[in-house]
Design a protein that fits this description.
Layout lengths: L11 H5 L4 H26 L6 H23 L1 H25 L4 H16 L7 H19 L2 H5 L1 H18 L7 H5 L10 H7 L9 H7 L4 H12 L2 H4 L4 H14 L8 H15 L5 H13 L9 H6 L3 H5 L5 H14 L12 H16 L6 H9 L13 H12 L7 H24 L14 H23 L6 H13 L3
């Protein structure tokens, strides 16, 4: 057991100041009781007592954890809410997950329990800072190891519970933006990603060197949810716009779930576009504009079926019928976004004034419809003919927001060669799958869907005719994007060498 210390900054003694030794001892007893109950429950379960006593003890643990919260609030009503509910989530999640795992992975469960007791012993009473971080890292690694076990993968509820437990641990380790602390303490806990590997990825989130595939791996394909939380919740952006964090979090979960696991038009592509537009703007927009831009990026391809508009029209798809062959996919993406936001748990704009909501809705519709590649020329010409107006807190610069989103959507060639090349392979895989289906249905095979395509020549043409003009114009809107044109030129030259 780690050495307890009540002298570290933020301990109950230092929080309360005037509270005496008796209160501190009472808190220590409650903490030790909770960890003892936890170890005993796991031990009995591992020995085969998986019903009756185990269930009772796990229930007792939950009560003990609630007792910790009560004692903490007794010490300091203000400070208690910052951490107490987080710890209840960690404890109950860990207990429930371990209980489910006992029949398959009793040894691993005991190891988890041992680490859990060390984490418990540090709660508010604290251990040395280095040891505290070490224990958190050990617990996270242990949980990640359990997730990888076949037993966990085969049982969705176990897998889900382990993910919840990991996210709960992350809450304690994550640095929280000051403006979000109070709202986090009032109900949204355990949702911020901050494992060492993810923090390493997020260190480059303001740059086009950001590697979305690394984040995809570390979050087990929950890339959009993780990045959306980081940029919208963790940053304080939602709080500044008076958007409930819990509802934005639920919306991100719903959006990610509504994407299909396609080679290219997946939730990872949406996250990649979200990160790209974030890297573009660098504080050049108002907070309201940033929020709308990020939301549009997250939703711009939601529900994409992996086939383009031409295919949907040619096959008489129900979406083409619904939208009269006009921007079929883009209308579908917008409709899906607002359908999700109409659900109460996702209703992020429910308390907005009607005029504000109307403006945001109109802007989101315009932005996502403008991602239709057939709209490229019109959009580019409009931006070239219009200066970027000064920011106005009461207005959204809709045209330029749409253009920034469009630039993000075709920004893959502006990333480093390894990333640009990887994305090219993914989009071609999806195109070729469509070409295969077109061949089976005796439909004309699209020019990009033929497996005999000259890929290098295609990429050079894509860069010259679409990407270069777009980023030249983007430079006039957002000067900080100038450096991307150099990377773009290098990638074009690399493709030319392969022609």
């Amino acid at each position: 057991m780690a050495q307890l210390s009540a002298e570290a900054t933020g301990s109950p003694a230092s929080c309360a100041g005037h509270k005496g030794k008796k209160e501190l001892e009472t808190g220590a007893i409650v903490v030790l009781w909770a960890e003892t109950m936890y170890v005993l429950a796991v031990y009995l379960g591992a020995c085969g007592f998986q019903e009756g006593w185990t269930g009772a003890l796990l229930g007792g643990l939950e009560l003990a954890l609630l007792g910790i919260l009560a004692v903490e609030r007794w010490w300091s009503a203000v400070d208690a809410s910052k951490w107490g509910t987080d710890w209840v989530l960690i404890g109950t999640s860990a207990a429930q997950v371990t209980g489910r795992l006992l029949g398959c992975t009793g040894v691993e469960g005991l190891e988890l329990a041992a680490l859990g007791t060390m984490l418990t012993s540090g709660y508010r009473l604290r251990v040395a800072a280095d040891e505290w971080r070490k224990q958190q890292k050990q617990l996270t690694e242990q949980l990640q190891g359990l997730i990888a076990l076949p037993e966990s993968l085969q049982h969705p509820e176990i897998h889900k519970g382990l993910l919840a437990c990991i996210e709960a641990v992350r809450t304690i380790t994550a640095p929280v933006h000051p403006s979000t602390k109070q709202e986090l303490s009032n109900g949204l806990n355990g949702h911020f990603t901050s494992t060492p590997s993810e923090l390493a990825v997020f260190s480059t989130v303001n740059s086009m060197e950001f590697n979305i595939f690394t984040l995809q791996e570390s979050t087990h394909n929950h890339t959009l949810h993780s990045l959306g939380q980081y940029l919208l919740l963790h940053s304080g952006l939602c709080t500044s716009q008076q958007i409930p964090l819990s509802q934005m979090n639920e919306l991100l979960i719903a959006l990610e779930a509504a994407y299909f696991p396609l080679p290219y038009h997946s939730s990872t592509h949406a996250a990649d576009v979200l990160q790209a537009v974030h890297a573009f703007v660098r504080g050049e927009l108002t907070e309201r504009e940033e929020m709308v831009l990020y939301l549009a990026a997250a939703a711009h391809d939601v529900g994409h079926p992996g086939r383009n508009n031409v295919f949907l029209v040619n096959t008489g798809n129900q979406l083409a019928v619904l939208y009269n062959d006009k921007a079929v996919l883009e209308n579908h993406h917008v409709s899906t976004l607002f359908r999700l936001m109409n659900e109460e748990k996702n209703a992020i704009f429910a308390k907005f004034p009607r005029s504000d909501y109307t403006q945001i809705r109109s802007t989101l519709i315009n932005m996502i419809l403008s991602t239709d590649i057939s709209d490229h020329s019109r959009l580019l010409a409009a931006v070239q003919a219009t200066s970027f107006p000064p920011s106005n807190p009461n207005q959204l610069r809709t045209l330029h927001l749409a253009f920034i989103l469009h630039a993000g959507d075709i920004s893959n060639p502006t990333r480093s060669w390894s990333l640009a090349h990887a994305w090219t392979q993914l989009i071609l895989e999806e195109c070729f799958l469509q070409g295969d289906e077109e061949q089976r249905l005796n439909l004309p095979i699209g020019p990009l869907n033929d497996r005999n395509l000259n890929i290098a020549k295609c990429q050079v043409g894509f860069i010259e005719h679409l990407v270069e003009p777009t980023f030249k114009a983007l430079r006039e809107v957002l000067p900080a994007t100038e450096g991307l044109r150099e990377t773009l030129a290098e990638n074009k030259e690399a493709w030319k060498q392969k022609e």
